[in-house]
Design a protein that fits this description.
single chain, 150 residues, alpha+beta, PH-domain like, 4 helices, 7 strands, 24% helix
């Protein structure tokens, strides 16, 4: 996986310098390289915002939260996921010129068996939710649920 190529995909949502520095620092701590990057995109007052980047390695799910000045991240065992909770909807937004844009929205909550209140939340706001869901399920497939209950 070309990490710079992955980072460049989000250039319209965040400063590439900030994102590259944070990803580089977090990956220097990990003993495994990412196989997948999944953006967590929320809808802000001025449009979509890159809230976090999730990266998946062979054994870890890592999350780099991007909306604070501090470097905020964590790792969890990918096999700890015991539930995928999905919510889809459409969000109309009125632009300044009076036209309406419809955003495809998604929220996926991953429940972990680490503790009763530990979860990872991933969001999407944009125009290609199905591609985002496909990428998410490729990175964190439902079949993990079978492995996590054994």
């Amino acid at each position: 996986m070309d990490i710079r190529e992955e980072i460049n995909k989000y250039s319209d949502l965040i400063s590439l310098e900030v994102l590259e520095e944070r990803v580089k620092t977090v990956l220097s701590i990990s003993d495994e390289q990412p196989e997948h990057f999944i953006p967590s995109i929320i809808l802000g007052t001025d449009g979509p915002i890159l809230f976090a980047i999730l990266f998946i390695t062979q054994n870890y799910l890592g999350e780099i939260r991007l909306q604070s000045k501090e470097l905020d991240f964590d790792f969890v065992n990918i096999k700890s996921v015991t539930n995928h909770r999905f919510m889809f909807w459409e969000q109309p937004v009125s632009k300044a010129d009076g036209t309406t844009v419809i955003f495809e929205m998604a929220n996926v909550t991953l429940i972990h068996n680490v503790s009763s209140n530990f979860s990872s939340e991933i969001s999407y706001a944009g125009s290609n939710r199905s591609a985002w869901i496909d990428a998410l399920l490729k990175a964190i497939p439902l079949k993990l649920l079978v492995a996590s209950t054994m």
